[in-house]
Amino acid sequence: MKKKLEKLFENLCCSHCKNSFDENSFTIKRDEEDLTVVGLKCSHCGKDFGMAFLGFGNIEVKDVEPLEVQQGPEPIDYNDVIDAHRFIKNLKGDWSKYLPS
Ligand SMILES: [Zn+2]
What we know:
This protein has 101 residues and is α+β, with helices and mostly antiparallel strands. It has one domain. The chain is built from three helices and four strands. Strands 1-2-3-4 form a four-stranded antiparallel sheet, covered by helices on one side. A hairpin with a 6-residue loop joins strand 2 and strand 3. The longest helix has 15 residues. About 13% of the residues have low confidence. Bound molecules: zinc ion.
């Protein structure tokens, strides 16, 4: 599961320090059959981006600090997360097969 998360966020970077997210940026809070809850926190500067909820057929990213993230000079990382949300949602239940194992 963690490898899939790395692929999902590999093109994103921290809006605060511009470092890429890596495996140390994720904390799996809950890993159940149909729901995984992941905390996303920059491992370089420690900025907390909140939680991502991943389930079969859909992914929802809820940021606990949306305003703080978006006020960065390049809030592209937040938008990319939303794009990933829409992309994966459109894949319905088969989204995981598009991620390298
Ligand atoms: Zn950072």
